[in-house]
Amino acid sequence: MPFPDIARTIRERPTHAALAAAVAMLLGYALWLFTYAEDDAFIIYRYALNAVGGHGFVFNPGERTEGYSCPLYTFLTAVLMGAPGDVHFRAKLLGLTFAVATLWATSRLVSLLDLPPWARAAVLVLVGANGNFALAALNGMETSLQVLLVTMAAWSFVREEKQGAGWTSALWFLAAGLNRAEGGYACACAFLIAARAAWRERSRARRLTWALVFAAPMAAFFAWRWWYYGDLLPNTVYAKSVPFGLALAEAPTYLLRTIFPTADRTAMAPAVILWALALRGAISGRLGGAARLLGLLVAARVAIVLRSGGDWMSGWRFMVEALVPWSILTLTGLVEFIAWARERLQSPRGHLVTTGFAALVVALPLLAAPTFSGVHDATSWWRVGWATDTRGLSHAEWMKNCLAVAAHVNEHVPAGATIAFGEMGMIPFLSPQLRYLDTYGLNDRQIARLETDARTRLGVTDACDDPESDVGRHLLQRRPELIASVVPADAPAPRPLSDRYLPFSRLRLPFADGGPPRYLQLWKLEDEAVGH
User: Fold this and answer.
1) CA-CA distance, 331 to 90, in Å (whole number)?
2) Helix, strand and coil in the chain, % to nearest 5
3) Residue 337, helix vs strand vs coil
4) What pLDDT digit, counting tens, does each position of 216-245 carry?
5) What is the pTM of this model?
6) What b/e readout covers 449-477, taking b as 16+ CB neighbours within 10 angstroms?
7) Residue 268 CB burial class (10 angstroms; 0-12, 13-18, ≥19)
8) Residue ranges of domains in the chain
């Protein structure tokens, strides 16, 4: 397209141009950070692998524990498990597909809002340029699917409210509720608005239909979960139920990760400005009823972070599903600020100042881009030779160590043996013939429910080799054949649990993650016959 035509498109159709730019920025981030991954993604893969193998949605065959928090995505992974290609590579492509679809859905949502054309376009730029959004698309987990479902639900709901007809948004809210354990919060937000509207309407049939479309299948799912797992909530909720005081202490820092993968002093000033604009947008009358839904979606996610303390992973995973509503509110607040400032600065200089401030706000995510370069040693796709398999994509040192550990246990530990360990992602996925007892409790129902305050966002953190700790006493009762631990290479090898376990095998880890050398130590129960 000739340059004048591009300029005319930007001028006449800013949202279309911004959508193309947002997709380009997202894909640029993705190529740059392509090897980024999180260990928890491989937990999902193991559940899906067992389901395809006829064992059901379990981590260990015969043990029904819901150690995942994304039923819909886990089911989708199982359905695609037999598709050609590597599961981890396929998950990255799926995540990117969901992220691109989210940008399209965002363009449809902003088209329904009473915002200036430049602000609608800026929303797309603010989302597409956010590196946390790219991390969510690459982590191999359900995050970007959840962002898409919540955005589609918001778009569908706002459109139905404008038209005064329809109930299909309930299906999108249902999908979001099935995809994340706490996903039903989004429907609860919409239900509050729908109930308020129904109270004022003479005909409430549409509202009742809307509620039933969501509630009936969701009730059936909870009944299945109770029957299959014996719980109403995923096991991870119990394992990560951190003390409320600890959650409140960690939550503010987490909430400041608006455009940074980790929050520090450099993140505070721009984050506070963005949050202030979002708050202004939430109380603005410019968006009408849509502001109530968008504001509730963001507020509900904030409440979840305040209770949980956020997430241990890099990025903004616990908030990113509200990124689109948050970005819309931020731009709405910016529009209100510009209108207020220009009313008081009636001069060309005032217009220049406000225009410059608006450009800075929209550009902030790109200014934060360099901080993503060191996230989990993430690197570009071309630097790993355009790899399309888990081994080739394992660029981070912790992933390379996991590959080495998996190879070691596959060689030295007989099939069917149980290993108590605190690494429940890639290693168990690559050694499906072994059983794993998760000392953090994410995939172990009994440890998750221990009466202990030794909990963090990782799960139960009691010392598993201490016979006086809650987890140690539990292991003495469960008697796994092997206990695995990662220890410094220069430390004497301890004998855990009152010398009930003897040294079995040892592997020096090839990468030290910038610290002192370490090794994997395996101990075996002294009265168990475990082949070397």
Assistant:
1) 34
2) 60, 5, 30
3) helix
4) 999 999 999 999 999 989 999 899 888 888
5) 0.93
6) ebeeeebbbebbbbebbbeebbbbebbee
7) middle
8) 3-376, 396-525
